[in-house]
User: Fold this.
Amino acid sequence: MESEQGKSEAIERWGLFELSLRGPEEGNPYLDVELSARFSHKNRVVSPDGFYDGDGIYRIRFMPDTPGTWSYTTQSNCDELNGITGNFPCVESSPENHGPVTVENTNHFSYADGTPYFPIGTTCYAWVHQGDELEEVTLRTLGDSPFNKIRMCVFPKHYAYNRNDPPYQPFGRRDTGEWDFTRFNPEFFQHLEQRVGNLLRLGIEADIILFHPYDRWGFATMHAAVDDRYLRYVVARVAAYRNVWWSMANEYDLMREKSMGDWDRYFRIVQERDPYQHLRSVHNWHEFYDHGKPWVTHQSIQHSDLAKTNEWRDLYRKPVVVDECCYEGNIPQHWGNISAQEMVHRFWEGTVRGGYVGHGETYMHPEDILWWSKGGVIHGQSPERIAFLKKILSRSPVERLDPLDLPSSTPAERYPCAGTEDEYYLCYFGVHQPAVMMLRLPEGNRYRGEIIDTWEMEITPIEETLEGECTVELPGKPYMAIQLHKFEADSVLREV
Amino acid sequence: MESEQGKSEAIERWGLFELSLRGPEEGNPYLDVELSARFSHKNRVVSPDGFYDGDGIYRIRFMPDTPGTWSYTTQSNCDELNGITGNFPCVESSPENHGPVTVENTNHFSYADGTPYFPIGTTCYAWVHQGDELEEVTLRTLGDSPFNKIRMCVFPKHYAYNRNDPPYQPFGRRDTGEWDFTRFNPEFFQHLEQRVGNLLRLGIEADIILFHPYDRWGFATMHAAVDDRYLRYVVARVAAYRNVWWSMANEYDLMREKSMGDWDRYFRIVQERDPYQHLRSVHNWHEFYDHGKPWVTHQSIQHSDLAKTNEWRDLYRKPVVVDECCYEGNIPQHWGNISAQEMVHRFWEGTVRGGYVGHGETYMHPEDILWWSKGGVIHGQSPERIAFLKKILSRSPVERLDPLDLPSSTPAERYPCAGTEDEYYLCYFGVHQPAVMMLRLPEGNRYRGEIIDTWEMEITPIEETLEGECTVELPGKPYMAIQLHKFEADSVLREV
Assistant:
């Protein structure tokens, strides 16, 4: 049987193809109906799960990764939905679409098209539960921000400053008013997807947090079968958005009812059901999950000491994303009140140690609209400095920063420095304020140097060309950095 | 045989009694003559070693610790010096003389008369090797400073910014120009003692560093027998100064030629020869000496992370003195260029974790006169803030600060806090900048609170009396502290 979607519009590479089908409404379609499809292009076959979207509508979503014609056949235990075939053309992606992010070169990331991806994350845990008005403000703020990743929960949040009920809830209710954990609420997930799509258009990765402990509704303590069905449902619905990352939890180790086996199982379910193998991790409170387990793609860390970044890189040989290093703000909780300067300092420290640092903001607000959870507008002073760091990184001649030593005749191993040996060095002095650095640069190379004031956001070129043993004068202030670019062969010729 | 000193002037308690004797000049008195004395008062006997001071003069120094009449008898393998007896009256100490410092209550110090001693140390490694003019400038600077302990080397220093030769050297020379390690140079030690005495009169403890690795003269690599004779000679000469502490080394683990057994032996020699059991420790570069060994009285630590203070306290149950946490300055070396703000921050952090922090300063100077080594004048901005901290401590109602949790309804265990349960709390927020703290104060008590700006050196009283569950507004700036004083019973009555 040929579906209505048999002749589809062209979908761009890493775009979202959606097959909508009519099917049974009776019974409990969430439990009773199994649905998936085989999408094939030449010898490549991808089999995403479908899902019930209410009102007799079933959908299967698919993200093609190769241009050309893709054909599909549905599979279902319901005759009405089984054996539906069709095809659609996949065309090359538009310039702003680089595909999903994957791990590249052990400790780094890139988009599927090879463009380096340097995560500059922020945190708005419950922003999709605040209603359209505030959510649209949040989107505008994000659009004007340096952030290209956001940590956000599927489930609503119950916590200090978070007492409001969400407009939508993920499950249906029984006549008694209790949750019917066998029925999802499609509106809830449609809304979630809308927001994931908004982020996609802004070029922002949605780091979707599947469980978290801050709960008054019972979503943190569901039965295992409900957890598992929920995971499969979320994956079926949103995995085809190219900007999705999976975070099994925020502070998994505060969810005392769950065992380590539960976390392993969640990872495995997501790993098995997501045909695109989006990035997977889990965020800790005090105890790290074992990031060495094979289904963990990168380290999602809560920790205040960014100096440990090198250690974590070496320990697991996976990218280090310090998603939470405390937030800029002024609430009483210690994790939510570091100064903007300290936040910027932590960004620089983690970055020049070869890791990636995440932002959050928790300034007290008369209506309890704190960015870290609800979004809204940003009040702090760190984001513009983070944007300045991002600009420096985007202009650096290397695609990733790996730790190395500043080539110095003064023992300099304690100043974190990153780059690519010989080519490029970015060294950050933090609370140290040397008035001078003695360099011992690689033989035969010449370098262009710049002094960076990370707080004032000023870049001052060093007038002299640097080579061999040389001395750089610095302003003797804290929070300074220097970068050294090797002159290209032709620049040297031009100069000569 | 009765000595000329048989009828002596009164010496105050913990003052210095010196018996000077004429004896043989021929041969090598440093090697050949053994000399000591038994000083007794009632049933107490103390036996300090004597020493040869050149020109046929032998001396025995003694610090009496009990008022009353002390009598003595010398002992020597030289008849001329043997069996000399005498006595002197010891009178109560003058008000500024509190005796030597000892360990008190596991992690703290007090003077022998019971006055709490709160070390506020600084570092001028080679100040006694700079000649009288600069040394007198250093003494004036110290007199105007908050510092009550100074780390100083016996041997001269060879290092960056330290290329000048000292006016005196510790050993004599052979005709060949080589050191005669069998003969001390009395002038060198007389000069050292003069400076220890200058410090004593300023109320400053002299933390005397017996060995260090920064050497071009051979003093870091002497034979064991020379090391041991040197230690006995130094102890004989200066142990009777009440303000002496013994530090076996600066950065002992950089002295590669010495074994752990050597360090143990040095400790034991000093322990056996010093009748007053002055404080003993050893300062590390990277690896701590085992502070658990019984002859170590306190921990002398080089480390940048003051947050570990609690751990070190608990590990060894001895006072934690972080003698080197980097220095305020601007030299290229990472250990010598933290900002004044960071130095003050580290002082506060270590202090409210129940430890004691040391200062040093390394600003580049046209004549290489850096305080950390040569003394001179202070250029930095941390000492006046350290003086402000010292003032707060001196006014606190408790004699020592032990870590405890701020009594708060917000989890506050990450804000270092110290004091005495119920009585007094001093809590420091560091890079955290809460705009408000929710307190949950011990039932039935009422507190007077103050907000402290550790950098601006301002103390702002909290107007309301604090009790039970209450909220304190804070300025939402980093580097703030609060202190809470329990009202005395009579104050409460007065208020009622």
Remarks:
- Chain A has ten helices and 32 strands.
- Residues 101-395 of chain A form a domain with the TIM Barrel fold (CATH 3.20.20.80).
